[in-house]
Amino acid sequence: MKRIIANGQLLEHGQLVKRDVLIEDGKVSKIASEITRDGVDEILDAKGNFVSAGLIDVHVHYRQPGQEQKETIKTGSLAAAHGGFTTVCAMPNVTPAPDSVNNMEALIKLNQTDGVIHIKQYATITTNRGGDELVDFKALKDAGAFAFSNDGNGIQKSSTMYEAMQQAAELDMAIVEHVQDDDLTYGGVLNGGAATRLGMKEMPWVSETAQVARDVILAEATGVHYHVCHASSKHTVNVIRAAKQAGIHVTAEVSPHHLLLSDANIKEDNALYKMNPPLRGEDDRQALINGLLDGTIDMIATDHAPHTKADKDQSISTAAFGITGSETAFSMLYTRFVKTGRFTLEQLIDWMTNKPASVFKMNNAGRLEVGQPADIAIFDLKDEHEIKESDYLSKGKNSPFTGETVYGDTVMTLVDGEIVYKK
Fold this sequence. Notes:
This protein has helices spanning 73-82, 101-114, 137-142, 158-170, 192-198, 206-222, 234-245, 256-260, 282-293, 309-312, 329-338, 345-352, 354-359; strands spanning 2-12, 15-24, 27-32, 42-45, 50-53, 55-60, 85-90, 118-121, 174-177, 225-228, 250-254, 299-300, 376-380, 385-386, 405-406, 409-415, 418-422.
């Protein structure tokens, strides 16, 4: 089947230019200022909107199997498509966890059957994502694991992390970690400023940064590719920067919410602002922004974490950690940073497409080029719209960005040339 995306605006050398895109057999076959319509089965009129490579998110939680009341692979992937994402990487905190070949193969099959976009699957580092019994790294790689992570749980024992890194390095696989020293969290739920205001326990920044410091030394010793999930503290940014300058193979991501919000935004006991790691100070937020701009932080990843209304409809002190992100990430970041001149559109797209693809060696994602799969997102940069809960396709409605007026609404998303979301 031949399709043309006509009258779109593509980014070329930092400028938006009018281009048509021809799609044949699921791949991009031509990009030109005008393409003949002869023999074309369908014309998709982009109406002057921005046509981009589909976004990539290396950090989502789809909850299936085991917690389908929060999210399923179907609803999570539909939400991602709604946000313009065409490739996501699903974390392993499901039940049963993908810690064995049988569990991994079953989950990959579910992803392929129920997902409307490309879903890559993390394996756990340890059995059932806890304790210190390492999984069979080679067998899980052979079964299709994307990388290894115990996300949601930091590896507490140094020797466990060291041995995991050794095995992953031998297989040229990444260790992707939620960095948290549990002994240093003190049962906290908020950063210092908000914790003091609301009379709740503090989760100090050192609980994150101390484990990053440990891990980058272990990464240097083993040569593994070590990736830091959702950096939140200026101190963590400093450690990552120093590690990169020392030649250690460390990469990092930052979530939209840590770029957009600080703990000053938490005015009252509202669990929509509860996430792990917590929102930190304004100086931390600025350090994260600067870390992206100077290359210390490599990419943006949502940490899409859907929960039920009951999970969140309680005090911050007892509610579940996490917010959704797939459906609000691009529009919020475009509005707050590109429209205001802090980032360029080219930078934002790079952090959400090309950088995750290159860091994690995804050869068939992140680029809108001839010969590449037609994984494409079309965004309306001209007209503003309100983020409404009724528009969410995720089961999770737990977002502090509901009600915001933004630009960059997703008009259409295509995966392998097929429409998987249309406004």
